[in-house]
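Example with several molecule types.
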Amino acid sequence: MPSSETERRATLPVEVPLHARPAGDFVRAAAQFPAEISVAANGKRANAKSILEILALGALGGTELVIAASGDRAAEAAEHLAGLVPDLG
Amino acid sequence: MDPESRNGFVGLVLVSHSAAIADGLAELVAQVAGPSVPIVAAGGGPDGTFGTDGGRVLVALQEAAGSGGAVVLMDLGSSVLSVRAALDELPAETVARLRIADAPLVEGAIAAGVTASTGGSVDEVLAAAQEARTVAKF
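Resulting structure tokens for the full complex:
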């Protein structure tokens, strides 16, 4: 199957930094998809399925995240995760 | 713990010289990983002092090795020794469902707990725990 790459941008709520609990929710959502998914912020890139990498982004509330997915169901994964970010809390 | 309530999620066993560390970490991991991951804390010595309690570690491993298996995380020193000693006491089929993580306790437990909460296998949960050895904190 040819791999497709999809990129979506989403902004964290102003009052919600990507700290442990919301990062856990994000990783659980990402893990439902077989695609390779990355999240970039602050000039760093993290594996969306690794909470330790996500936490190391140090993304504060209001930060724009760039979600890139490739492989199986990539577009669906990027869309779903981008939709989730503004609702994290 | 009722084996039927575990739903096959991989569990965690947290072994520390301090009951407060093990219990507090269990609470923290439950907050981040959610309620589906079974977590057994085995911290402190037999008389409530700092140390490890081989008997309690043995019971914790037996309890946690249920349907989905479990990953064991330890702080250091005699925690590691008591887990090794307990493994020697357990039947091979129980040991086969357990994985011992060589990882920092707090970071490893958070990573393992979140991966367990996604339905990851015992080997995937082990890998997540051990990733804590190399992922930078910031």
